[in-house]
Amino acid sequence: MTDTAKPRREQILDSASRLFSERGYHATSMRDLAGDLGMQGGSLYAHISSKEELLIEIVNQASRQFDEALFTLRAEAMPADQKLREAMYRHIRVVADNMDSATVFFHEWKHLSPEAYARVTGWRDTIDAFYRELITQGVQEGTLRADLDIKMTAYLVLSAVNWAYTWYRPGGSLAPRDVAEQFADMLLGGLRAPTGAQP
Amino acid sequence: MTDTAKPRREQILDSASRLFSERGYHATSMRDLAGDLGMQGGSLYAHISSKEELLIEIVNQASRQFDEALFTLRAEAMPADQKLREAMYRHIRVVADNMDSATVFFHEWKHLSPEAYARVTGWRDTIDAFYRELITQGVQEGTLRADLDIKMTAYLVLSAVNWAYTWYRPGGSLAPRDVAEQFADMLLGGLRAPTGAQP
DNA sequence: CCTACCGATCGGTAGG
DNA sequence: CCTACCGATCGGTAGG
Q1: Per the CB 3.0–4.6 Å rule, which of A133, B10, B66, B173 could disulfide with B6?
Q2: Per CA to C1' distance, which residue is closest to C14?
Q3: Structure confidence by residue, pLDDT tens digits, A36-79
Q4: What residue ranges does this record give for the DNA-binding region (chains A, B) (predicted)?
């Protein structure tokens, strides 16, 4: 344990996440990636078997992070508005803490081969289902408005938490918790002023 | 006017939008594109000068559509909540009516050469500014909540209207107007039930 | 992990 | 708009 360096394979995945997110999967060559790690192109294949393996692993790791963050919430007994707030926080935290792989996840999953592609599609459905269940629970409880369209409400929430990958800047003045609290306040309470002041 | 076919150059741009959005810019070869149009790879260069020219034109056309939709709203005198509703409708309509080029716009602009890249970055700032002004106006008028953080509110609205490119399906049961009305209702009125019913 | 290389494919051009 | 081609670069491999 005196060696503080990450295993070479993890370094490769980190570099790949960064380069794929900046330039895109197809525009990043294996020689670009090797150069970023200070080695020759062919040397990468001592650690990995193919370029697509890297993409698959990056996307899988991102999926797993979302899963771990959200699905532990499923069982918890909590009013739905509070649960929605917590889900948004966890979701945004995953995006914010993994900006590179989240960007790869949102942009490059279409380039996966059919099996991996289908897995991602299926996974996205489970995330949709998670939010729809949560909102349905809220409507049934009476904490959320009775006239909500469940599907559209889930899209709206997912828009807010996913789109963060385009504008969030780690290390800035906003922590993931701040973003989530503000978004949840606005979504739950609405943007319109309480008094319908008409001059 | 007896010829109903589009000019060849427009056909090329349409095919390019579709292929770039499905497979990505770098994963689409000029031979793929030519094949989609029933011609040989080299023949494309009778109509265009380079692959990047196609990307630039697709991105520029998309920007122009957003501009035309939104900036005509700027001058209109209208309560800010209503103006926000109308802006969301127009924004979503541009996305919905141009799913391919909107997808290319959101995913592939990073692959532009420095000058075109900088132009897109600058353009995005003007869209941000448009929404921030609109929200500021609403706060000053009293139609929107006084405690809103302008920047975060603009991000939330932009999330909702932009993320539609990932899930909207033209020809489905939801027209752009429906999406915009539902999103605006939820955003303005909030998701929480009016009566704080606590059993 | 490097050197040297493979066949395939890339964007683009010349000449017709 | 086609044929035939250019140099460059791609992902990946063999042998050390």
Answers
A1: B10
A2: B42
A3: 999 999 999 999 999 999 999 999 999 999 999 999 999 899 99
A4: 29-48
